[in-house]
Design goal:
65 residues
């Protein structure tokens, strides 16, 4: 979870600085963690996560940091 958090924070910083749109392709486990971080919540693999379908597109809008 720490690796994902670190990578996500670095990506957020780069996206905010560039102002560009980015497409991140990952598997469902990683996107579950990212969605929790983006919502300001703690991720736990012990909690039931919502179903993410195969090839599902999830949009996360990143505002200024």
């Amino acid at each position: 979870c720490e690796r994902i958090t670190s990578g996500w924070e670095q990506l957020r910083t780069e996206i905010s600085a560039s102002g560009e749109n980015v497409l991140l392709v990952t598997h469902g486990g990683v996107i579950h963690v990212i969605l929790r971080i983006a919502a300001g919540e703690h991720y736990s693999n012990r909690e039931k996560q919502p179903k993410i379908g195969h090839c599902q597109v999830i949009e996360i809008e990143i505002g200024g940091l």
